[in-house]
Each structure stands twice: as structure tokens, then as C-alpha cells.
Amino acid sequence: MISRLLFIFLALMVTNSKAIMIQKTYIVHMDRTKIRASIHSQDISKPWFESVLDFISESSTQEQEQEILPPQLLYAYETNMFGFAARLSPKQLESLSLVDGFLSAMPDELLALHTTHTPNFLGLKSGIGLWSAQNLASDVIIGIIDSGIWPEHISFKDSGLSSVPSHWKGICEQGTKFSASNCNKKLIGARTYLKGYEESVAKINLTTDYRSPRDSIGHGTHTASTAAGSMVKNASFYGLASGSAIGIRQSSRIAAYKACWPAGCVTSDILAAMDQAVSDGVDVLSLSLGGFPKPYYVDSIAIASFGAAKNGVFVSCSAGNYGPRPSTVGNSAPWIMTVAASYTDRTFPTKVRLGGGEVFRGSSLYQGRKTGQLPLAYAKSAGANKEAQYCTEHSLDQSLVKGKIVACEKGLNSRTEKGMVVKKAGGAGMILLNSDSQGDELLADPHILPATSLGFSESNIVRNYIQTSRTTPTASISFLGTKYGEPAPAIAAFSSRGPNYFGLDVIKPDVTAPGVNILAAWPAKTSPGLLKSDQRSVVFNIVSGTSMSCPHVSGIAALIKSVHRDWSPAAIKSALMTTAYTLNNKGDPIADTGSNSSSAFATPFAFGSGHVNPENASDPGLVYDISTKDYLNYLCSLNYTDSEIALVSRKTFVCPKNSDLQVGDLNYPSFSVLFDRFIQNSSVTYKRVVTNVGKSESANYVVSVEQPSGVSVSVEPRKLKFKKIGQKLRYSVTFSSIGKRLRVSGSNSFGSLTWVSGGYYKVRSPIAVTWQ
């Protein structure tokens, strides 16, 4: 049966019967059980995908008189999913409907790429607990799908490591300035995926990049060292954030899969990398990339991650950098660990003094002398170009900004590029102004001139001062180095938010982890500000994004995998979620910098279950485990069709007939409850199963509930009595809306359900209620 998506794709195509038919790259999903029995794969001398391509090539040629290029195979997928990526003409795409086992064809898509102090902030201590010598001695392999790696970096030295794990089946590919000798007992494998990128975007520019696993962007090197970099003493960024740089699971082996390039990451390449990584033997997959939310059956990362989880591989993904707008969280399938980003207590403060006497605090990685009290320029006073307020290329008037501090709005170009533009125009400094949506976000950037960022309220004062001052407005910027002890964690404004757009019944993101101003390894030939004109070379760089928080959780998952080799990915995920905390280091609720209110607290739609707590996650007491069948039944509860579910499962799955499946019954470690705002006193009951994984055979748990506003919560039973480790017990939770007031559509209230055992174990699940 032709997927309903295929009809949409065909309807959008226009062909010219007198020309060579244009080909596009498609990811083709097949049913493994049917393709093997297909008449198109009876020639056992050929791989199944060649037989399929031969068939559609012959079928389309017979019906067309114009010249048609044969299908061009890019990749075959046989581990996490079953299918292939190929360049196909519209007629060849249409011919796929005649192939037994064809499920769907999706156009290739371009996705975006989304630590000295953080291990200490996470509570990891040398020689103790998860960082004990015994635990670190076990072999866990983390696969990093990113922009490659700089293999010579000191963070990837293999001193003291044992031989390569016996279950490793991967290789170290040769390519431009990369050979097999670049791998060692730390970096045990490296591969490159570029076919999809070169077909969809552009050929690799060998003057700026490498047709090999070598990293030219820095992103992959940074994420790999964050997850599993070896210890490097006296690391810093020009003296900032000084200390010992070390990966979260520093003895893990790294397998680098380069699927991301300067313009982004193409899904066909990502899928090939994920497929190979699982086949190679990785234990954890880390993907700091993604796009906007979409249904799971058309989400390539979700489909491949399902296959990886089925093979026992834990998949950690970044939530995205599209916050603080709601419902922007990506990588939201329930079998993926979706990670938000938050601040640690380390900052790089600056002081901005206005001519009127006001003093503000900002943030910057610039390390140089402070500026004097200099004139300020902004918008029209910086140039007649309408983009002057954004400080884009050629927008500033040198005669207006020379020797001045220029105030620049964020947006249109990168923050470091704005500084370059100001410096080219003769400016002496720069103040980056936050918009309403950016709130009090204070990101530190490696500027090439004296520059700082300011929060929204301070930025508004600066704007008003410049535009209303009766005298020449002035400002000065001074730089205060590295400071510790700020209230933390706090959710980053850029971190993508829930609710989960295509799965309101599952809270996303799952957890938050350090993702702001993270110091980690950097390629020697890549400037810290990613500017061609910036000739600086650094060993470590400080970067922000959910791309940085994701590898923290990947490393923690590897630590837990070391302790609990028999745990499923869902059990590890449960442990991370139910032990997460929601209070900062001052004992207050975690703040949300995306809000302009100083008293605004983050909700589960910003941080999921809370901030990860590695040591507690290694001994959670109880876990909520989920099987492959459970996930597929969940898709049934979403009213997915058989063909849509088959795209995820890779084979036909028949939903239970006349069942009482409901979306809230997925055995997830959190509760998302939906009420119709027009129906008063409605209720819904969800079921859960918990498994005793604590240290005691006999364990008693009592439930404690923090009820969301406007909702009554009852749990049955209220006590769970376990008699052995591994025992599973069931409970049910009934949520009832109360009150006669009509709720506003989309309004929310939040609470929690916690199973407590003897004051030692606290197994907490957040509750999010939405009135629709």
C-alpha cells in the first residue's frame, strides 16, 4: 500500500517530459519481512536493495520515452531501520508502490547542530561512587554523531587505558589528513558520511573542510570530550574556567561518526551513521543535533533511535535551541532521552557602567583591559542602514561608530560576527542587547574586541538611555574573570520547551543538564569564534547550547551502564529522571532565564523531571521499565495506522483489538494529563509498573503527592511492599479536575508523585496537567 505521504510528495512534483527527469534524495522505508519474499529479490546473487532499484529502474523506463537516469543508491540501512537512501526521479518514486514491502519514502532533510567545572557541579568525585576505579575500569563505548573529531587533541590521549573492548567491530576510516594511526585505545573508531550532504547541499570544500572524520567546525570535538575526554590538567580558555578538564565518563571509548558539515546534517547521512554505530557495537549514542518536532513515523531520528533502543543502545539527544517559545522541543520520541540546557554556578561576569550612573552585570569571554567611558552608538546613530541595530556586515557607518561602544541587537548574524563588524568599522567595544524572548540570558562569547551581553531588562534601560539622553550617552565595560557560587542550575532561555507538540501525553524534555558556557576540547585550526578573520588558536573553547548538555547525559548514561550492565535503555532513562532534582544550590526552585520576571520558576515543560543527579541515578530504588511492545502499543493509542507504526517497528505490527489502551498508560516515569476545559469534574486513571532495583530484597514504599492546582490526585495502592530485587508491582493514579471555574485553553498546572522508602529512596515523577 502506498503511504499517504507518498501521494503528497508526488503531488508537489512537476516534471518536464522533454528533459532528463530530475532526481531527488529519498529515504525509503521497507518491511523486512515482506521484501525478502518479494519477487523483486529472488535473485540471491544480488543484495535486496539492488534488486529493488533494478525493478523500479526498469518499470519507470518502460513507461517513459525521455531519458531517465538510473536510481543512485547512497546508503542501505539494515540495523536500526530497514530501507535505503537513493536519488530517485518522480517516476521511479512512483514505481516503488509496486514493490512488495514498500512502506514510505521521505525526502532527505537538512538538520542543525544544536568541562572543567561541570563534573564537580554534577557531584562526581574522583575515586568515589561512579568515578571509582572499579567502575571506570569497565569498557563502555560512546558513539558521537556530529561534525567529526580532532584526533591529536590531548583530551583523546589513551594513557592508562586497556586494550580495545572485544565487542567493538568498527574501523578507523582513512581520508583527508586522517589515517588509521589517528585512532588509539581512546578514539577507537571514526567514520565519515557525506553522500547525502553532497547530493542535497554542496560538495565538500576541501579548502575549509576534510573528506574524513577530521573536525573543521569544532562542535564534534567539543561534544566528544565533554562525554568521554581524558583528564587534562591546567586547562582554560585564556585563563578563564581554569582547572582539570575531564569527560563525564573519562575512561569510555569514543567512536566518532562525522555526519555534520558547515551547512548542517542531512538525515540520510545521520541514519547511515546511526545504523553503522549500532552495528559497530556502541553502548551509548549521543546526537547533539535535530530539527523541529514532527510525528514519530516521519521523524528519521526517532525511527532510527527506536531500532537502536531495541538493540540495547541508549540514545541521548539535544532538545533544541528554539526556546523559550513553547512546543519547540525536538527529538521527543519517548524512547529518546531528550536533554534541556541549564546554567552551572560558574559565570564570566562583566560590569557595564552608563554615563547616567547605572551599573549592570553582563557576561563575556573577552580577556583584556576595560574600556574607558566612551560614547555609545545604536541603530540610526550607528548607521543609516536599517540593519545597523543588528550590526550586520556593511550596516555600520565608520564615521558614526569609530572610537565608540556600539549597542547591537541579537539576531540575523552570529554574536561574534557582530563584534567583527563593529571592529572593522572602527568601534572600540560592543554591548549585545537581549530581546524580550531572550529574557535574562547571559551567554559568554569569545569576542575579538571588548564586548559583553546584557539581560533584557538591562538592555531596555540601555536602549532608552541612548535614545533619550540630552547629552552624549556613554558607557564603559570591565571584565571580572571567572566567578563561582551563583544560584544554579537555571534553565537557559534558548533551551527548547514543551509541551511535546506531537505527543502531549509525554512530558518533554526529560531532564536538564549543564549546557551554558561549557569548556571542552577544540580543534587547533578552528578559531574560537568561528570567524575567518579570527586568527586565534585555542586548545579549549567555551560554548553554549543543548548540544553541550546532551553529551553530559550521554556520559552519565555510560557511567550507569558500567554499574548496571543488564539495565535496558528505558531503565537507565528512568533512573536519571526519577532522581533528578528541582531545587537550586540555594534551596530555591530552579529559575527560568527565559522569563523576564525575576521570580519566575521553571516548569517540567522547561526541565522535564529536573536536573540530572548522577550518583543518585546509579541507585534509584525503583525503575519504570518499558519494552519494545509497550512503545508500539503506545503508538496504537495515538491512533497511528498499521503502516505508520510499521515505519517505526520495521515490520507489521497489529494493534490489539477492542483494547483499553490509552496514551497515558505508557510506563513513563512522568505523568502528562489532558483535560477538556469545557468538561467539569472529569477524571482519568493511568497505570504504572515499578521494578525494585534497590539494595534491599525487602523494601516498603509510601506514596507522597504534590497535587497540581485544580486537580485531585489519588493513588491505589498507597503503599508498595517488595519482597525481592527485580520484583514488579503495579499501581494506578486517578487525576480529577475540580472547581467550577472555566480554564483558559492551554493553561497548565504542575505537581509530583513520589515513592518514598525509609528516607533513603525518593522516586519522583513530575505531573503536568493541561486544559485543552
Q: Tell me about the biggest sheet? A: 9 strands, mixed
Assess the beta-strand content as a share of residues.
25-35%
Backbone shape: globular
- Give the termini separation: 35 Å
Poorly predicted spans: 1-19
- Return the structural class: alpha/beta
In DSSP terms, counting alpha (H) and pi (I) runs of 4 or more, how many helices?
19
**What is the tally of beta strands?**
37
Mean pLDDT: 89
Classify the helix fraction into a percent range.
Answer: 10-25%
Oligomer: single chain
Rg on CA atoms, Å = 27 Å
Domain Peptidase S8/S53: 138-589
Keywords: Glycoprotein, Hydrolase, Protease, Secreted, Serine protease, Signal
Domain PA: 375-458
Family: Belongs to the peptidase S8 family.
Note down, in words, how this protein is organized:
This is Subtilisin-like protease SBT1.1. It holds the Pfam family fn3_6. It comes from Stylosanthes scabra. By secondary structure, this protein is α/β, with parallel strands linked by helices. 21% of the residues lie in helices and 26% in strands. The chain contains 19 helices and 37 strands. The strands form eight sheets. Strands 6, 7, 10, 13, 15, 16, 24, 25 and 28 form a nine-stranded mixed β-sheet that branches. A seven-stranded mixed β-sheet has the order 18-17-23-19-20-21-22, sandwiched between helices. A five-stranded mixed β-sheet has the order 30-37-36-32-34, with no helix packed on it. A hairpin with a 2-residue loop joins strand 8 and strand 9. Helix 8 runs parallel beside helix 14 and helix 9 packs parallel to helix 10. The longest helix has 18 residues. It is globular, with a radius of gyration of 27 Å. The two termini are 35 Å apart. The N terminus is likely disordered.
